[in-house]
Amino acid sequence: MVKNGGFSEDDAVLIAKVKKGDTQAFEELMLKYEDGVYNVVAGIVGSYHDASDVVQEAFFKAYVNIRKLKGEKKFAAWVYTIAVNCAKNRYKQQKREEKRDGGSEDSNAGSVRDDSMQVEGVAENNETTEFVAQSIGKLSPEHRAVLILRHMQGMGYDEIAKVMKCSLGTVKSRIARARESLAVVIRDKIN
Q1: Using CA atoms in the order 133, 137, 139, 141, what is the torsion angle rounded to 10 degrees?
Q2: Helix 23-45 and helix 11-19: axis angle, to 10°?
Q3: Is-contact 84 164, C-beta < 8 A?
Q4: For the chain, which end, N or C, has fewer CB atoms within 10 Å of the first or last residue's CB respectively?
């Protein structure tokens, strides 16, 4: 869900202003989308610190490349695509560093969310939320991303396909597989 943030101008007007050099217009776009982007990124990379860094990187890339944004493409889908790609890259980097440093594969899974991270619409420090977050943390980056985009951000399958740069069938398949994998992880944790 994208919050309004109190702005009356639509994205197309703001983007036109940004392309003319109006940095305030980009700040408005960033404020409008940063919470949703953060939630998606946090679900993929895990830690508050890394998620904040990745969100900054994603918005920086969006700002630098905004002239490449075509009029028919929605800003939201475009910035989510950038953020998901940055998050997946950070996740891969974390895994390479863990391997190099001799860390176990599960070392990040237990710390998927630190205490300061929040899941939109759910009270902080809720045990169920933490349990689900840790379970989602054990999924692959692609499965994390589709579940978060679908269930936390409320995106439709078409939007997810644009963000993930894949076909509608692939999105449906990934969501189904992600749900199956999540069910297995949860079942294993309960037993």
Answers
A1: 110
A2: 110
A3: yes
A4: C
Report pTM: 0.65
Residue 130 is encoded by which pair of tokens? 């933490």
What φ, ψ does residue 168 adopt, rounded to 5°?
A: -60, -40
DSSP character for 66? Answer: G
Q: Indicate the residue type of 7.
A: F
Dist CA 51 CA 19 (whole Å): 27
Task: Enter the tokens of residue 69.
Answer: 């944004």
Q: Which of 34, 23, 28 is nearest to 83 (CA)?
A: 34
pLDDT in tens, 63-73: 999 988 886 56
**Cα(first)–Cα(last) distance of the chain, in Å?**
34
Instruction: Supply the pLDDT for residue 173.
Output: 93
Which pLDDT belongs to residue 72? 53
Q: How confident is the model over 25-51, as pLDDT tens digits?
A: 999 999 999 999 998 898 888 777 888
